[in-house]
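Deliverable D4.2, example record:
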Amino acid sequence: MNGLKMSQIPRGRLLIAFGGFTVGGYALVNHCMYNVEGGHRAVLYNRFGGMSDKAQGEGTHFKMPWLQRPYIYDVRSTPRIIKSLTGSRDLQMVDIHARIIYRPNVDRLPEMYRTLGLDYDERVLPSIANEVLKGVVAQYNAVDLISKREEVSQQVRLRLQERAKDFFVIIDDVSLTHLAFSPTFTGAVEAKQVAQQEAEMAKLFVVKALEEKKSIIITAQGEAEAAKLISNAVANNPGFVELREIQYAKDVAATIAKSEFKVYLSSDVLLMSGLARGLSHK
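Output generated by the structure prediction step:
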C-alpha cells in the first residue's frame, strides 16, 4: 500500500471519491449550516427539545440535519399603515390612518414563535391598532381631533405601546397621517368658518363705525370750542374780526398773484372793508 502510486488507482474510483466529497460538501453547506443576515435573528427548533430559549445572532451557524430547523426573524424597525373607520364623541364618522413603526422584541423571539409564528405583525397589529384608535378617537369631538392632533397621536402611541407588550412587539413611533370626515360634516365646518369670518368682518365694521363716530364727536367738540373762543375774542376785542379779514385778504391776494390770469376785485370782495373801517376810526 505504501508503494501504491496515484497512477495505479483506477480512474473510476477517483471520480467516485471526488463525487462523494462534492456531495458531502454540498450537504454540509446546505443542510448543516445556515446564515443569519444583518438585522435578523434566528430561533432554532429541535425535534427532541423544542424551541431554543435564546435567539441566534448574525453570522453563520451549524445545525443538525433533520433534527434542527432555524426560523429567521427580521428585527429591524418596519413601518406599516393601519386604516380605521371609527366614530368620535359627537358621533361623527372619522376615517383615520396611523403609521406605525414596530419591531419584535429580540429577547422574546422564542415565545413569539410559539404563540404567533413568523407573521406576528399580520396577526397582531391590525387588531390592536384598530382597538386603540377606536378607544382614543371616541374621547374627542371631531373638531378636537384636528386642533389637538398631536395630543391624540401621543395618546394612541402610549396606549399602543402598552398593548403591544402583551404580544412581544415594540412600538417605536406612531403618527396620524390622515384624518377625513364625512362630506356633510366637512361642509358644516366650512360653513361655520365662513360664518365666523363674516362675524369678524361685521365686528370690524362696527368698531370702525364707532371710531368714526368718536372722531366726528371730537371734531364737533373742537369746532364748538373754537367757535366759543372766537365768540369770546370778538366780544372782548372788536378788532379781532378786522384782523381775521386782513389775514383772509392777504391769502386771497397771494393766491391771485400766483395765477396766470388778471383779476380785478373790489375791496369788499377782498374783505378789506374792515381795514377801511379801522382807518376811518383813526
